[in-house]
Amino acid sequence: MDTIVQTYRLTKRFKDAEVIKPLDFTLKKGEICALIGKNGAGKSTIFKMLSGQIKPTSGDMQLFGKTGKKKARARKRMGFMIETPAFFPDFTAQQNLEYFRIQRGVVDKQRIHEVLEIVDLAKEKKKKFKEYSMGMKQRLGIALCLLSSPDCLVLDEPINGLDAEGIMEIRKLLTKLNQEKHITILISSHILTELELLATRFVFIKNGVVVDDLSKEALVDKSRKQILLKVDDPAKAARVLEQAYVDLQYQVLPDQVITIQNYAEKAGEINRLLVDSGVFVREFRTETLKLEEYFLGLVEGEQQ
Amino acid sequence: MINYMKSEYYRLFRLKGLYITSVICFLLIAAAAAVLYYFGQSDPNFPYNTGEFFYSNVIGSGLLIVLVGIIFNSTLTGKDMSLIKQSVSFGISRKIIFWSKLIITLSCFLAVCAVGILFMIVLGENMFPSDQQSVRHFLIASVNMAPLILSGFFLTHALKMMKVGDIYIIFVLLFIYGFSSNLLRNLFRPVTGLNEIYKYTPNTLLNDNLMHFMDGTVQFEYLYWIIGIVISVIAILIGAKKFKNQSID
């Protein structure tokens, strides 16, 4: 698999604060990699170093295997949208993209119409950028990223300000670009449920350090599962379960609910055991922790 | 660099402010001519109804022209600077951005200055009595002024690219091109060897140029060019170096 981004011991220091501690990160071709972290964790700083907006304090990085001055050429194969996209407020979308089309040496003028169609802004011909809603501005930012037909997109909070429909459209678009055009995507968002639906890899960052890096499959496996059951007699159910499983970890909750944190793989066996023991099971289900819960567990767990 | 410059031209020629500023400059020239012409016609003893006096309005407005340069430079280095993050992330070097913006705004400023000078000569020669030397003297005085005005433009560009606020830029320009001689004269008066340094400040040179023009003794001076080039080179070198390492948010 080709490497799109590779960083070696990359650091960034602002005055006395080391915002990014030595970072070794690799982005492989075809991935949709979600960078997840709280505000101030260092996500935008990493993006800005990749885009060249800020210079690393130390370390090195390769883009498409290129370093040094050749890196600037490699950046032309990438589309960056970091924080709020900036455009000329008195220009229409068409004029703004024409400015960047000329600047980026995109020969095909039709490409502007194509990308505006993709982000559903083609009909807004006369509206100036200053009259755009937040969602429209974000969409134009994505259109700009796509203008030069990049091989990799780096998107910092691209669904910020979008409504539910807009978020879904962007998710579909990014999935389509990844699957059909094989565009690699590095993305961050505070809407973790969206990232969970979109990404194929999850990198968790805390205080400038990568604290976990796992694939979607690994995340599913690693997400702690629990069994939730609702019974008529929780005391009896607990007694039966304790006799059968010595190291059982469980909690008795209000409303006759019991949660079991281990033995999730033996859910069927547990269900049969309770029924055979005369416990009436009203509800029985296996729960997987969501990305958000996993993230909070990771961050807050380390804090504790 | 060519693509970047082309895109900046695309932006520049769609800025209303640029056209409005240019038109205002030409209107001010026309207004000055009209006022002098009107008073010249209504009062036969009006002493300023001459081409020389009309031209001296420009020769004596060095500081004002430097300040007008801020407006021209700001067309591409003002609010639009927020867009350069997208240019940088596309791999366009800061060097290209720095020089392209300078070349384009400077060419536009020079074009307006050139048209303004031609416009003045046309008005001056057709509306006012003047001797044969007045245009020649006006052009020589303009050539003497040019490097100092340009140094102000370069200084403005360097400060703008370093994200220095407009108010601070105006103060710096007012000091260097307006009041530096007084300060340096008072400051270094007791210091032997430095007590003459005020003679080399831009505002002393601009004043000298005006005086020489008014008494008809103006001639091409290398000193104006040396001072102008020194200020320009220092400003550009510092500006380019700072901008190269500047974080772009």
TrEMBL record, chain A:
Chain ranges of the ABC transporter domain: 5-232
Keywords: ATP-binding, Nucleotide-binding, Transport
Ranges that cross the membrane: none
Source organism, top-level taxon: Bacteria
GO molecular function: ATP binding
Pfam families referenced in this protein's UniProt entry, alphabetically: ABC_tran (PF00005)
PANTHER family from the UniProt entry: ABC TRANSPORTER, ATP-BINDING PROTEIN (PTHR43335)
Membership in a protein family: Belongs to the ABC transporter superfamily.
Protein name from the UniProt record: ATP-binding cassette domain-containing protein
Species, as recorded: Oceanobacillus luteolus
